[in-house]
Amino acid sequence: MVDILEYIKQMQEMYGEDVITTADKLEKPPKTVVREMFQNAFKDNKADGGRAGYNDGQLVTPSVDGSRPGYAGVYKRKDQRDAWRVMGERGGINVAKWLKSQGLETTYTNKKAANAAYQKFLDANPDKLSDVTKAKWMKEGEKLATKFNTLVQKNFDAGDMSKTPSWEAFLKKQKLILAGVVT
Predict the structure, then answer these.
(1) Within 13 A of 25's CA, how many CA atoms are on the CB side?
(2) Contacts of 35 (CB under 8 A, 6+ apart)
(3) Is residue 88 part of a domain?
(4) How far apart are CA 31 and CA 49, in angstroms?
(5) Which residues pair with 145 in a beta bridge?
(6) Which pLDDT band holds residue 150 (cuts at 50, 70, 90)?
(7) pTM of the prediction?
(8) How far apart (Å, rounded) are the C-alpha atoms in residues 116 and 177?
(9) Would 141 be classed as within a structural domain?
(10) 39-50: per-residue pLDDT in tens?
(11) Residue-number span of the structural domain to which 101 is assigned
């Protein structure tokens, strides 16, 4: 009987070292990465520090421009006549950056459209991580893993794996609703 490591060495000599390898040298499968991502998200979600302090009698200190950055929502722009701005942050996520990442504007000509954009942000970025159930995270992760695996299979069947992105590169191109890509 041939030892498995000896067999791998023989196959590598015949077909090249990049054709057959051991599992410790492989990239983690997408489903494993997604599962670990969600497990780690719920591991240590405790805030550091103590009670929120007051700054000069105010919970939120005004910034240089006089705005109060801890307050988020839709505001009428003072510098433009018919413009409504969506601004602020929630759960450490900046509204403007999030909207731009979703292909949405931060300034609108009517309040209804601005409120709709802000509501999308609120729905996707809950106040507390516990507001997003693990099941919803897992469902999104499984859909992404299935989509990625379909792409891998398509490229494999076509005989051209060079078009297959890494899992991380694939995720960065997706419009993630509940999850994020950490690099």
Answers:
(1) 6
(2) 138, 141
(3) yes
(4) 34
(5) none
(6) very high
(7) 0.35
(8) 16
(9) no
(10) 777 665 455 444
(11) 73-128
Helices (H), 16-133: 30-41, 95-101, 111-124
Scored b (16 or more CB within 10 A) or e, 149-173 reads eeebeeeeeeeeeeebeebeebbee
Q: Do 150 and 113 touch, CB atoms closer than 8 A?
A: no
Instruction: Specify the pLDDT at position 67.
Output: 47
Q: Is residue 109 part of a domain?
A: yes
- Cα 26–32–36 angle (5° rounding)? 120
Angle, CA 132 vertex, CA 126 and CA 135 arms, to 5°: 160
Pair 121, 86: CB distance under 8 Å: yes
Nearest CA to 70 out of 104, 48, 94 is that of 94
Lowest pLDDT segment from 7-21, 59-73, 81-95, 131-145: 59-73
Is 86 part of a structural domain of the chain?
yes
Do 96 and 106 touch, CB atoms closer than 8 A? yes
Residues 102 and 120 sit within 8 Å (Cβ to Cβ)? yes
Q: What are the φ/ψ torsions at residue 109 (nearest 5 degrees)? A: -85, -10
Total count of domains within the chain: 1
